[in-house]
Amino acid sequence: MTVPIAAPTGVVPAAAEGPAGDPGPTMTAPADLMARVDAHLAKHEAHWWDLALAVHARPELGLAEFHAAALLTAALAEQGFAVTRGLAGMPTAFRAEFGDGPLTVALTAEYDALPGLGHACGHNLIGTMALAAASALRPVADAAGIRVVVLGCPAEENAGGKIYLAEAGVFDDIHLAAQIHPANRDELCPATLANDTLTVRYRGRSAHASSFPERGRNAYDAITVASVALGLLRQQLPSSVRVHTLVTETGAAVNIIHERTAMTVKIRAADVATLEDVTARVGDCLRAGGLATGCETTVERVLPRFAEIRYDRLLAELFARASPRFADADLAYLGGSGETYTPPSGRAASTDVGNLSWLVPTIQPMLRLDTGGSGNHEPAFTAAAASPSARVLLADGAHALAGALLAAGTRHAGHYLAAGTPARRAARLAEARAAEVVDLGVPMITPPVSPSAVPDPQDAP
Predict the structure, then answer these.
(1) Which of 115, 176, 177 is closest to 152 using CA atoms?
(2) Which domains does the chain have, with CATH numbers?
(3) pLDDT tens digits, residue range 313-337?
C-alpha cells in the first residue's frame, strides 16, 4: 500500500511542482496503479459503451428507472461488487461496494431521463461512467487502501434522490464523492443554482359563468393575479434569479367559473441565502392571488430545497490533473482559502449534487459532448448522448474519475479521513440543516408513471 500523505485539517495540500511544470507526485496517482486502471478501462471499454446505449434506448423517468437500475446493478454484480438494492424508500436506488480500505470513495450514478426528450441530459453516460471508473478501481483497491462504492441515485431531474439518500444516512460513511456531467463544454467547477419548488392551490366557488357570475369566486383569476405579481417581481430580482411557473390544474369548462386551480412554481437563485428571501417574496405573490379573488390559498413545498454546489478544492485539482482535457487549465482559483469553492453564479441549472456537497467533499465537473451547439434538455442533446462523441466522453470521464479518486486515496487519505471524523461530519450537517438543505421532511413524490408506461422520446409528437 502506498503510504498516504496527510495534510493538516482544513488545509488543501499545494501541488509540489516537478521539472517542466510536472504537478508532482502529490497530485497524481502512482503510475503503476494508474497503468492497471487504464488497462482495465481499455479492456472493458466496449462493454460500458454498450451499457450506455442500452440505458439510452429505454429512457425512464425519475423513481421509475427499473430497467436502468437492473442493468447497472447486474453489471456491478458481474464485476464482483456486493450490491444492495432499494434504499431510502426508492426501489431504483442501490449501493454497490468493493474493498475494505479505511478510505471510502463514492461514485454517484444517475440514470433518469426527461419526459418527452429521453436522455437529453446525458444521465445514461453519468451512470455508466461511474460504473466504468469503479470497476477499474477494483483491481487496485487493496493496494490503494480504499473501499470503492457506487451509489445509484434516482430521480435527479424530478425528485432530488440524493437528498433522500443523504437524509437516510446512505452517505454517512462516504469520505468523498464524484461524478461527471455531460455538457456542451468542458468546465471543471461549473456554477449551479439553489432552488425551491412550490405548489399553490386555490379554491374558490363554482357558478354559471353567464347566469350567476356574482356567485362565483374564480380560482383561475387567482392564478392570473399571482402570475402578474410574479412578472412585476422579476423586475426587482437579482440577475441570477429565475422564477418558472406551470399551471397544473384548471377548470373543466369555459362556462363554469373555476372552483379549483393549481400551479407549480420553481425559484432559482445563486445560493440558499438569496433563495430564502426570494422564495418568501414569491410566496407573498401567490397569496396575493387568493386575497384578491376571495379564494382559499395553500402554498406547499413539493420538493426538497436544492443547494448550490460547494466544490472540494483538492479533489477538483486532482481531477484536473487526471484529465487531459484540463491540461492547460488555470487552476489558481482553487488555491483560495477554505476546503470548498463555490463559483460565481451565471447561467446555470440546479442539481441535488449541491446538497450532497454540503455534507461530503464532492465534485461534478462537466465534460464536453459534441452537440452542435445545443445545450442540455434540448432534443439534439438526446441524440448526442448516444453519438461517437459520447463514447469518447465516457472513456475520458472514466479515466479522470478513477485517476482523481486513486490520487485521493494514495496521496491524501489522511486529509479526507480527517474531514470525515464524526465531529466534522456533524458540523457540516448542522450547517446544512440551518440552511434547510436537508431534513425538511418533504414527502417524496409519487413515481410519475409505471415503468412500462414511459414513452420512447422518438414516439413523441
Answers:
(1) 177
(2) 19-192+307-453 (3.40.630.10), 194-301 (3.30.70.360)
(3) 999 999 999 999 999 999 999 998 9
